[in-house]
Amino acid sequence: MSSKNRTLPKGVTAGDFDKAMREIRAIVGAEYVLVDEEPLAPYNKIMMPVADAQHAPSAAVMPDGVEQIRKIMKVANKYRLPVYPVSTGKNIGYGSAAPVERGQIVMDLRRMNRIIEVDADLCTALVEPGVTYQQLYDYLQEHNLPLWFSCPAPSAIAGPVGNMVDRGVGYTPYGEHFMFSCGMEVVLANGDVLRTGMGAMENSNTWQVFKWGYGPTLDGIFTQSNYGIVTKMGMWLMPAPPDFRPFCIQYPNETDITKIVDALRPLRIAMVIPNAVVIAHTLWEAPCTPVKRTDYVTGPGAISDEAVLKIQADHGIGAWNVYAGLYGTKETNDANWKIIEAVAAATGGKIITQEQSRGSQALQYRFDLMKGKPNLGEFGLYNWRGGGGSIWFAPVSQAKGSETLKQMKMAKDILGKYGFDYVGEFIVGWRDMHHVIDLLYDRSDETQKKNAYACYDELLHAFAKEGYGMYRANTAFAEKVAATYGPVKRDVEKRLKKALDPNNIIAPGRCGISL
Amino acid sequence: MIIAAGAMLGGAGAGAGQWRDGVQVYEKVCSHCHEANVGPVLKGRQLPVAYIERVVRHGNRAMPSFRPSEIDDAALADVARLIGAGAPLVKE
Ligand SMILES: Cc1cc2nc3c(=O)[nH]c(=O)nc-3n(C[C@H](O)[C@H](O)[C@H](O)COP(=O)(O)OP(=O)(O)OC[C@H]3O[C@@H](n4cnc5c(N)ncnc54)[C@H](O)[C@@H]3O)c2cc1C
């Protein structure tokens, strides 16, 4: 490439870069190495409120196997090339397939898309990073296997390995994805191949059924980190229940969040409700219904509370909309349904059953997600503000009503200050809540872009001051988010990096870890 | 019962991660938004093939970009041609 403005990895000369690319082409084949700007465009599409250039890759390589990755690691060490792995590369709103730092080489693992094994008796699967949820879904259907998995909202185009590695969540009883993963294969920076848990043992047949192995359990250090490239992952599948009863409960007031959380927490902890309950605000439901923002707001600034009330009335949307399901036999679900009805009645909620939900786009995609049926219904969110700007602000909260109300108010105030709407939901773990807010802005408007950056920054620091940390963060804020967790943790992370990747080859800067 | 993928590779196009043709790409990827009231309807707009290919590779505002590792050039050309020609791509 002759352009003077070419993007190069930090500290690597053009001559060395070209040499390295020649060596990598010899490993994976020329058509699987991209270095020119135009073909690299799909690796630079971001929704974050920073310049594209900040996350521009210098190259993309698409290996098709562990041996190729090991060889690429050798070249990367020789030339000190930073390599940023992605699996399906759909971490949209958190950085997509673009590298955390400008100039890194994206290692795109999408071609490694083999479903290696499904054990229908033990309900386990072993998959490669390029497998998508849609692919796995089709596979199970084609083989008539009554097994479900849990997936995130962009399920049709994302995949289990990338999602689990970033510790994503879904909506079936197996919704805490890292928890329900079992066994990883990881290529380390020096090219060694580590199998975690029971997989470390030759001839083991328990890799996908027992996670812990012997000695320290290492799986966690390969999530939200840059200590290795995950090339296989075991995951647990759930037998399709004989009876599945998804439902929605709508509540009329914003302050109802307190009693909702306090009433549902015991049911969740006791596993009467086995899946991750979602409590979605009006403005999450509206765009997915779909409702047009421009019908309710004119001019700049955040939407008013009055307009939000009007949307609720016009479209039959709650201030809060609770989604959960019962998974069991007809008999157990009949019994538990009575509990749900009693809780809804006692808290002033209106139940919408599957039958009553027909025709509602917003309810349908949620009910599908609760049985692991891939769709992209939640992308409706992006029609709210338009302009393709989005970053997820995602603090962790206790599953206590007073806490959720406090976080909601804090977030709404800060968002409003910058002219942004509160588009949020709470996803209930067992005892925590992932409070997920989509900071939607028009990325083609420079002022909104600047405001979105400043807004996230203020949200982050205001929440950290109250002791609230992020469950996950976008790549533009990786360093700042890592800093909120204090120096000792970061020092340990750095020492691990030094030990496992002394040349700082794998995704330097991811989650704030670098040498 | 254990099913190893080796036994079924080549059997199922999507299962093997390779696309049979543009129709399948449309069904498994595009239709999730463009037939679901999320993204704009594409049919009947006579969109030029080159335009469709560019939007798929670059993304466009909220529309994600798709890499050649996800949708290869041949499959993309086929789906773009079918959309451009207004071919019936979903069961109606
Ligand atoms: C509308 C919308 C709704 C969403 N809803 C959800 C949701 O419900 N739940 C949820 O969890 N997320 C959600 N997301 C965020 C995101 O899209 C998903 O989490 C998605 O699964 C992540 O993309 P991916 O699976 O393609 O992972 P990738 O983009 O492939 O990977 C994510 C990150 O992990 C690292 N990584 C990936 N693969 C490897 C590897 N093999 N080895 C080492 N490191 C690796 C990389 O740093 C990468 O950037 C949503 C996004 C949108 C736009």
Model description:
The complex is a heterodimer of chains A (515) and B (92). Chain A is α+β, with helices and mostly antiparallel strands. Helices cover 33% and strands 18% of the residues of chain A. Chain A is built from 16 helices and 19 strands. In chain A, the strands form 4 sheets. In chain A, strands 12, 13, 14, 15, 16, 17, 18 and 19 form an 8-stranded antiparallel β-sheet that branches. Chain A has a 5-stranded antiparallel β-sheet with strand order 5-6-10-8-9. Chain A has a 4-stranded mixed β-sheet with strand order 1-2-4-3. In chain A, β5 and β6 (124-127) form a beta hairpin. In chain A, α6 (257-269) packs across α13 (401-417). The longest helix of chain A is centred in the last third of the chain and has 20 residues, at 446-465. Chain A starts with 13 loop residues before the first helix and ends in a 15-residue tail after the last helix. Chain B is mainly α and 92 residues long. In chain B, α2 (49-58) packs across α3. The chains are: A alpha+beta (515), B mainly alpha (92). The interface between A and B is large, with 54 and 35 residues. β5 of chain A pairs antiparallel with β1 (2-4) of chain B, so a sheet runs across the interface. Bound molecules: flavin-adenine dinucleotide (FAD).
Helices and strands in order:
The complex is a heterodimer of chains A (515) and B (92).
Chain A (H helix, E strand, L loop, with lengths): L13 H15 L4 E2 L2 H4 L18 E3 L4 H14 L3 E4 L18 E4 L6 E5 L4 E4 L5 H10 L4 E2 L11 H6 L15 E7 L5 E3 L33 E8 L1 E2 L3 E9 L5 H13 L8 E4 H7 L16 H11 L4 E9 L1 H18 L2 E4 H4 L3 H9 L12 H4 L2 E6 L2 E3 L2 H17 L6 E5 L3 E11 L3 H20 L12 H6 L3 H14 L15
Parallel strand pairs in A: 2-4, 3-4
Antiparallel strand pairs in A: 1-2, 5-6, 6-10, 7-11, 8-9, 8-10, 12-14, 12-15, 13-14, 13-18, 16-19, 17-19, 18-19
Helix pairs in contact in A: 1-3, 6-13, 13-14
Chain B lengths: L1 E3 L17 H13 L14 H10 L14 H12 L8
Helix pairs in contact in B: 1-3, 2-3
The complex binds flavin-adenine dinucleotide.
